[in-house]
Amino acid sequence: MSQISGARTLHRLIYTSRVSIPEAAIDHEIGSIVQTSRRNNRDVAITGLLLVHEGYFVQALEGPAEAVMSTYRRILDDPRHEKSKVLSAGPAAGREFGDWNMCARRMTAGDDAILDTLRARDRFAPESLSGAAVLRLLTAVRGIQARTRLGALG
Ligand SMILES: Cc1cc2nc3c(=O)[nH]c(=O)nc-3n(C[C@H](O)[C@H](O)[C@H](O)COP(=O)(O)O)c2cc1C
Questions:
Q1: What separation in Å is there between the alpha carbon of 74 and the centre of ligand 1?
Q2: How many Å lie between the centroid of ligand 1 and the Cα of residue 15?
Q3: DSSP H/E element including 30
Q4: Tell me, what's the pLDDT at 1?
Q5: How many other CB atoms are there within 10 angstroms of residue 115's CB atom?
Q6: Which atom of ligand 1 is nearest to the CA of 48?
Q7: What residues contact 14, with CB distance under 8 A and at least 6 apart?
């Protein structure tokens, strides 16, 4: 098969959704999501990052198109979130989150600089960010994640 057939092209999908997990259970549930994700995503060559902030999830999934779409469809059925909205989806030139089958970060006060950059601190509203802006947000989070490992979940 050709290397450039649709199934082999790298795709990236970024979506946001509202967390529907009680605050008291959130760290535990996210730990469990990350554990499951690492196992499943490794098997289908998906990498990505999951951000949790102010009641929102923002997640990037990258890998073969079919694997990305079937994983996203499975995630959509998960009762731990709701109101999912795709912010960007399509072919990507390379992996941005290649180090992680899935890593998660809950934003903390120490991450203010990132939120300042996005002028998103007053009201974090990822559903109104462009695909490019949300990718910038996630790659900035990836940067601090790599440097600090603080605030990492799972
Ligand atoms: C916000 C969110 C992100 C998730 N991300 C992933 C993921 O990247 N990969 C994955 O396999 N499951 C992910 N899940 C979990 C799936 O919804 C589902 O529970 C899981 O894939 C089932 O896997 P299992 O049949 O191996 O237990 C996510 C769930 C939520 C709520």
A1: 7
A2: 14
A3: helix 26-43
A4: 41
A5: 18
A6: 8
A7: 58, 59, 60, 61, 86, 87, 88, 89, 131, 134, 135, 138
The class of domain 6-153 in CATH terms is alpha beta
- Asked whether the beta carbons of 97 and 60 are under 8 A apart, the reply is yes
Q: Where are the domains of the chain?
A: 6-153
Helices (H), 77-130: 112-117
Q: Residue 7 corresponds to which tokens in the numbers above? A: 């199934």
Burial of 23 (0-12, 13-18, 19+ CB in 10 A): exposed
Q: Which two tokens stand for residue 152?
A: 């990492």
Report the predicted TM-score, pTM, of the whole model to 2 decimal places: 0.89
> Which residue's structure tokens are 């072919």?
91
- Residue-wise pLDDT tens digits, 90-145: 999 999 999 888 888 887 767 777 767 665 556 788 999 899 989 998 998 888 77
Q: pLDDT tens digit string along 39-88?
A: 999 999 999 999 998 899 999 999 999 999 999 999 999 999 999 999 99
For residue 7, CA distances in Å to 2, 65, 91 come to 10, 6, 11
Task: Establish whether residue 81 lines the binding site of ligand 1, counting it when its CB lies within 6 angstroms of any ligand atom.
Answer: yes
